[in-house]
């Protein structure tokens, strides 16, 4: 525990729970825990049975009972608005999925209203499954920011950058200009941060990447990029550039501790050495990779090379859910099979990937990702009362291998309740469902007529 109660504490919120998994220190579980929060920050973590616990003056007390408290999950990669495409283009490989289904639908329908409604749908789902921070790469990132602000959730917006025109911009220079403008708008926001989002090595040329490398260093912001996602990407890069994409990016000077590589299903030993030397972060999206048959990320080997590996769901169009609990389970099981080692990614490491590692990838680990005094109170409580959770010997194992998303009972972001006893507090679900059904009709008719 972080402290005992020698002096009275004034707090805005006091949370009690049977267990807490703070992530720092790693592989630690605390029992009979109370967490005091003031002005959105954790100010004390202590044993609930202290004799002088009544000396805490809290404006509100929440007793989560037989629950486990964890840091809020960090969904380190996704495309939130694409929740409106859930189930619309299943059972297809990546390039056919993109070229024949997703991009034509986006060209026709992905306006600002689409992004606002789709993002809010995604946020509602993420909150209900314990996510308090998400990274997003999509058009109209300013609309994503507005939806996130309304819902009081933390977000990092990797504003997309490509060579070709879309509904968001005409060319790479305009994408970059819009991103820097967005950075100026949100640079002092408590919950919204901005990153550069070059889409993928095959969709952006050298000069914009060189420019991005300099800007990212100047502004000290991350760069998110789909990277080594499919075997075709590697093959095409050899044909066009005479080398693998990671080699090209290294030669351009864009790889650093600010760089976040998404997917990384096609890594050889030289790639792993390059990203380890540069300090690159990797976001593993196991369920999306499996659904699109893109390949497998060598998570165990990345871990052994001290490379930070976070978790992401990707978008609902290529995964169909935004459940980080499910993603943890898939990640650890898949890693065991790939490494032929049942201990490759143990439960406590899967939780670290879904929390602190995600915060590190986004450059936010000084604020979130673990339950520590001085950090922001981004927390999730998971009830352990259901039959599938019993018996409980190692709470971290129950979280990763047994828990279902609907067992998330409470969620706080910077001390603000986003979910209370399973009910959303910052989103009007009735209105949201009405808007989603409207899009279901519009998109359904579009598919029939195409």
Characteristic key phrases:
450 residues; alpha/beta; 17 strands; 38% helix; globular
Short description:
38% of the residues lie in helices and 22% in strands. With 450 residues, the protein is of the alpha/beta class.
What features would you describe in this structure?
By secondary structure, this protein is α/β, with parallel strands linked by helices. Helix content is 38%, strand content 22%. It has 15 helices and 17 strands. The chain has helices spanning 94-109, 112-128, 141-151, 172-186, 206-219, 231-241, 245-252, 269-278, 286-291, 299-304, 324-339, 347-354, 356-361, 395-401, 429-449, and strands spanning 9-20, 30-38, 41-47, 56-63, 67-71, 73-75, 131-136, 154-161, 192-198, 223-227, 259-263, 281-284, 309-311, 379-383, 408-413, 416-420, 423-424. The strands form three sheets. Strands 1, 2, 3, 4, 5, 14, 15, 16 and 17 form a nine-stranded mixed sheet that branches. Helix 2 crosses helix 15. It is globular and about 65 Å long. The N and C termini lie far apart (60 Å). The model is unreliable at 1-5 (pLDDT under 50).
Q: How far is it from the N-terminal to the C-terminal residue, by CA?
A: 60 Å
Query: Average pLDDT, to the nearest integer?
Result: 94
For this structure, the quaternary state is single chain
Helix-strand category: alpha/beta
Which spans of ≥5 residues are poorly predicted at pLDDT below 50? 1-5
Described by strand count, sense and barrel closure, the largest sheet is: 9 strands, mixed
Estimate the helix proportion, in percent.
Answer: 25-40%
Radius of gyration: 22 Å
What fraction of residues sit in β-strands?
15-25%
The gross shape turns out to be globular
The tally of strands reads 17
| Count of separate DSSP helical elements | 15
